[in-house]
Amino acid sequence: MIIAPYRDKLSQIVILNPKGGCGKTTLATNLASYFALRGPPPMLIDNDPNGYTSRWLERRSKDSRRIHCISDCKLTILGKRTWPSRIPSETETVIVDTPAALGPREITALTRNADCILVPVLPSAFDIHTATNFIAELLLLTQFERPVAVVANRTRLNTNSLEMLTRILADFETPTIGVLRNSQNYVHAADLGLGIHEMPHHRARKDIAQMDLIANWVDRLLRRTWEPEITPAFNVQPMSRAVGAGLAYAE
Predict the structure, then answer these.
(1) pLDDT tens column, 79-122
(2) Could you tell me the pTM of the whole model?
(3) In angstroms, how far is the first alpha carbon of the chain from the final one?
(4) Beta-strand pair 148-153/176-180
(5) CATH fold for the domain made of 11-225
């Protein structure tokens, strides 16, 4: 059980792909940073035994916006039925980072209370084939009741691999909502325990623009839990143009 029954406004974002190395932690930590800047402090659930999300949080400066976290070892100790009560009352958004090689029963349990599911995919024919098969299975497991979107990771627009991905996913009506570049900005941010929105804007503006697209998609789904007059603590860049299914890219 991910969401405690007494927390009606608690929203859950699940980052899911049974293939390892596709960028789940990168997406989870950057979304957590985004929501931390926006406030109130989000909660990261680190379900990966490798603990990459927890390690990122350990690098985070005490001066940075606060992010709560429960790691895999604590999940084992507390039990999945009791840990939701440990989520602070101020938290409205929970972001779940998941491990690789999950089975159907584990996927069903993780997505049971999800408000949306994000699937990061690498730009290779093998990864695209694996991801599309997984998404078809995921839609059946969730009975088409959970919004699912794809984030293309370590790629760029106007490439054959991205065109192939969006064309195949169109059959599932699964949108590709962002394209994360193969950028050193993510590497530098991760080393500092930061998200891309916390990097200097002049240096990371292209990457910030893509993360804004992802966050805006999530925002529309979770709008019921957020006050419309909230102003982010950073400069959100307007989308200059749309490409494909809701994509924009600042060159």
Answers:
(1) 555 556 678 888 999 999 998 888 888 888 888 889 999 999 99
(2) 0.82
(3) 43
(4) parallel
(5) Rossmann fold (3.40.50)
- Cα-trace Rg, the chain: 17
Strand partners, 46: 97
Tokens 């429960």 belong to: 70
Strands 93-97 and 43-46: parallel
Tell me how far CA of residue 8 lies from CA of 54, 86, 93, 99, in angstroms.
26, 15, 11, 27
Residue boundaries of the structural domains of the chain: 11-225
Rounded to the nearest 10 degrees, the angle between the axes of helix 24-38 and helix 52-59 is 40
Give the span between the Cα atoms of 3 and 201, in whole angstroms: 35
Quote the DSSP letter at residue 247: B
Query: Are 64 and 36 within 8 A, CB to CB?
Result: yes
